[in-house]
Write a structure and sequence with these properties.
This protein has 430 residues and is mainly β. It is built from 2 helices and 25 strands.
Length: 430
């Protein structure tokens, strides 16, 4: 594979992971105690058209392109945990995605609030393990994005990295849930999830003293424990993203994770606590012709419910009918939301001074059947990642707050929103 093509494939993988959390919701009660339990999906009665997961895989065209030798995400998949927390080499693209909100007190005892994102991506270059003499030969490329929002001081930091899965530089284990990229890592063990990542701010937009391109160091070392079982998104084991065979992914989430650990920002070090959201998605799909990107929402309501929504956007400005979502009730029940069961209205815009991309910046989300109306506002306007070190993709992913009501009862909450394809259509990148 020539370097230019390889770069495109890697970029596509990142895209797929980027939106992976487009739609999901989780319940608060842990009535079914085993987060590490077997989740059965009944066999499909029909091979309904696949979906393009909210973080589409590389390449354009039909799902039967050169990736056709990889396994497609098709109805009837049966999730088994903890096995499915690990890597799935038969599929071309995969990501493990965390967002969350953290609280701490500084040295003066003042409250500080942070949001964070950490995503690991695996993009396969070959279906089977490489058997060449070179120790650099690799089947997969691993890349990752790390972002931190200092909500109190209205600053945003991000960094990214990439490496081939060779020579121990990076990898995604199959038998045990362990993903690493240099000293960045994710590991599942003894009912907990451990995240470690650190880097230097690559945004060039933050100010420390008179330096507007500070290169501020920041780091996360977090331990997560699920407050509820995993939620399977979509229907019959697949999350459909577009019409067509294999345009789908297998997608599940832990919608509420109890989180604690340490956070370092510049010379400051904090002990943090909070709640997080985890998505894991894998498939061999891509954006369909006519799709340019997606808007994805992961929302944790103050009453203990969760809501995931994704909108697949079309070139003509419309919404793909396979856009969907999940609502998770307090008792753990979930309901799949079809495109006509929710509305997302953009109510303001923000233009990036760095990329020039124009993004939606405020939203009203309505679920008519539930009587829910939510007004969503970014905590910081500029939460754009420009991933020059890995995928070359510009996208907005940021911490949000929301207020609203359900049939007269006040609602509030926090979450994350991801916006892709506003700088350039993803199809062009693929």
């Amino acid at each position: 594979m020539n370097r230019r093509l390889q770069k495109s494939v890697v970029a596509g993988a990142a895209l797929l992971a980027l939106m992976g959390g487009a739609a999901y919701v989780i319940s608060r009660s842990m009535r079914r105690r085993g987060a590490e339990r077997r989740v059965g999906i009944s066999p499909p009665t029909t091979a309904s058209s696949p979906i393009v997961s909210p973080r589409p895989v590389a390449a354009s065209g039909a799902a039967t392109q050169s990736v056709s030798s990889f396994r497609l995400a098709l109805p009837g998949y049966r999730f088994v945990f903890p096995r499915d927390h690990a890597a799935h080499p038969p599929f071309a693209t995969e990501w493990w995605y965390y967002t969350g909100h953290l609280q701490a007190r500084d040295e003066r005892g003042k409250q500080r609030h942070f949001g964070y994102q950490l995503t690991f991506f695996r993009q396969a270059l070959k279906l089977r393990a490489v058997r060449r003499q070179s120790k650099w030969a690799a089947r997969d490329i691993i890349f990752a994005h790390l972002a931190l929002t200092d909500e109190t001081r209205q600053q945003f930091y991000f960094t990214d990295r990439i490496a081939r899965a060779a020579l121990g530089l990076a990898g995604a284990a199959v038998k045990t849930p362990h993903i690493w990229l240099g000293d960045w890592s994710l590991r599942f063990a003894r009912g907990e999830q451990r995240l470690r990542a650190s880097g230097t701010d690559a945004s060039g937009t933050n100010t420390v003293g008179n330096n507007s391109n500070s290169g501020t160091p920041f780091a996360l070392d977090l331990t997560q424990r699920a407050l509820e079982p995993p939620v399977i998104h979509g229907q019959n084991g697949v999350s459909q993203k577009a019409a067509g065979h294999g345009r789908a992914s297998h997608y599940y989430s832990f919608c509420r994770l109890q989180t604690h650990g340490t956070l370092r920002l510049g010379d400051e070090r904090f002990k943090v606590t909070g709640q997080s959201w985890f998505d894991h998605e894998f498939g061999s799909n891509q954006l369909a012709p006519g799709q340019v990107g997606w808007d994805w929402f992961s929302l944790q309501l103050s009453d203990g419910r969760e809501l995931m929504l994704y909108r697949m956007r079309l070139k003509d400005g419309g919404t793909d009918p396979f856009s969907s979502g999940t609502i998770v009730e307090r008792d753990g029940r979930t309901r799949h939301l079809k495109r006509d069961e929710f509305h997302i209205e953009s109510r303001a815009t923000w233009r990036s001074p760095q990329s020039g991309a124009l993004y939606p910046s405020r939203w009203r989300v309505t679920l008519p059947r539930e009587g829910i109306v939510l007004d969503i506002v970014p905590v910081v306007a500029n939460q754009e990642l420009r991933t020059r070190r890995s995928t070359g993709i510009n996208y907005w992913e940021g911490s949000i707050r929301m207020t609203g009501a359900q049939r007269g009862q006040a609602l509030s909450g926090a979450g994350y929103v991801e916006l892709t394809g506003y700088d350039k259509p993803f199809a062009a990148t693929f």
